[in-house]
Amino acid sequence: MRRNAPMLLAAAALAFGQEKSSEPAAKNVELTVYMLSGSQAPGDDVPADLTSIVKQLHSLFTYKGYKLAESFILRGRNAQNAYTTGVLPGSGVHYDFRYTRVRVSQDKPYMVHIDGLMMNLTGTPSYGPVDGKYRAGLNIGSISTDLDLVEGQKTVVGKSSIDNAGNALILVIVPKVIE
């Protein structure tokens, strides 16, 4: 039996390797997320690849200017969830972006189905002056939806008013399927 052990180990390794490689690799989905601010201050300040989106926004809303507030990339596996958090530069506003599940269609062009997409904006969390207890930041705005996106297409997902001055945050997502 001991003489055959190396051969048995080699056969098991070969069989395991063949079985594992025959499984199709799970697709990953990379979301490029843009958070645009719409305000009454005139002038646009967005990357060139977003000018067509901003042109459409000007025809839909009364904002005089749009600026890129933040952008990020979030990559996750097909049929899984993902999330990221951060702070909008120069504002102290915290964001929480997540989805419950992303699914990719079988046929090209791929459709990316996002379930339970949610983006929340909150003010800076604080600690109570007397009791020292943590206080979550005030909810400033949120967008929550289920949606279907075409791979590579820039899609305006939603708009949320963020203050009394009438400013808004507009969420734009571009999905990419990684095979």
Characterise this structure:
Helix content is 15%, strand content 49%. It has one domain (25-178). The model has no long low-confidence stretch (mean pLDDT 88). It is α+β, with helices and mostly antiparallel strands and 179 residues long. The radius of gyration is 23 Å and the shape is flat. Strands 3, 4, 5, 6 and 9 form a 5-stranded antiparallel sheet that branches. The chain has a 4-stranded antiparallel sheet with strand order 2-1-11-10. The relative contact order is 0.20. It is built from 2 helices and 11 strands, in the order H-E-H-E-E-E-E-E-E-E-E-E-E. Strand 10 (155-161) and strand 11 form a beta hairpin.
SSE string, helices as H and strands as E: HEHEEEEEEEEEE
- Give the biggest beta sheet: 5 strands, antiparallel
Unreliable stretches covering 5 or more consecutive residues: none
The strand count comes to 11
- Proportion of strand residues: over 45%
Task: State the secondary-structure class.
Answer: alpha+beta
Count of discrete alpha- or pi-helical segments spanning 4 or more residues: 2
What is the residue-averaged pLDDT?
88
How many structurally independent domains?
A: 1
Radius of gyration from CA coordinates: 23 Å
- Separation of termini? 44 Å
The level of helicity is: 10-25%
Shape: flat
List the helices and strands and how they pair.
Blueprint: H1 5-21, E1 28-39, H2 51-60, E2 65-77, E3 82-87, E4 94-99, E5 101-104, E6 111-122, E7 126-127, E8 134-135, E9 139-150, E10 155-161, E11 168-178
Antiparallel strand pairs: 1-2, 1-11, 3-4, 4-6, 5-6, 6-9, 7-8, 10-11
